[in-house]
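FORM 7B - TANDEM STRUCTURE REPORT

SECTION 1: FIRST PROTEIN
SEQUENCE AND TOKENS:
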Amino acid sequence: MRVSRFALWIWVPTAVALAVAGGHTLDARAARDSASSGYGTIRGVVEHGFDREPAAYGNVMILGSRLGAMTDEAGRFRLVEVPAGRVVLMILLPGDPRTLDTLQVIAGETLSVS
């Protein structure tokens, strides 16, 4: 999954369930590369609807930053170099209201959400 920085993305807002699943996992490469600089990684899967189908090609972004990614066909995304601390993750899917979730990013760790 390619993570991109963006100036402006325009999509119809959407609603999705997103909850921390399984807590924090340590990625050795991410820990080595980002622990000293105060950054972490967020990865996960976005699902929507009552049957929780993967949400392909939705936008996932960190409010107040230029960090964002698009979900792949299976609803997966990955955001790297997320500043450590409390962040608000926003998910936009066509046809659904936007979803906001507050997460705690720890430097050098990968936070898994679904």
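SECTION 2: SECOND PROTEIN
SEQUENCE AND TOKENS:
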Amino acid sequence: MHLDRSAVINPIFSPPVHQTLPWREDLIAAVAPRHNLRIWDPNLVLARQFQGIDAVIDFGGSNGTREMADLAAGCVKLWQIVAVGYDKFDLDYWRRKRFLSLTVLVS
């Protein structure tokens, strides 16, 4: 499989609501210069935020809801959980949505 490193994607970052420093700034600095990064806002309409999204970067997995999985299924190619665990993430539900790639990075 060839990876096109020049491809621009449309990811949305779901930061933890209780702990944002330094994770949020580090991720934005790494992703935003090359891609059309959006930051998930729990106060805005979810469906509108997921329009045109290619990937989800879910910090901790605790923000991911079944509603998000339903909206993302069929259009989001990658759902990446950056975490030390995913015990609050309904992994079985996401698997049934058949994402091309569901990645859990555990430190």
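SECTION 3: OBSERVATIONS ON SECOND PROTEIN
The longest strand covers residues 78-83.
The domain at 11-106 is CATH 3.40.50.720 (Rossmann fold).

SECTION 4: SIGNATURE
Preparer initials: ____
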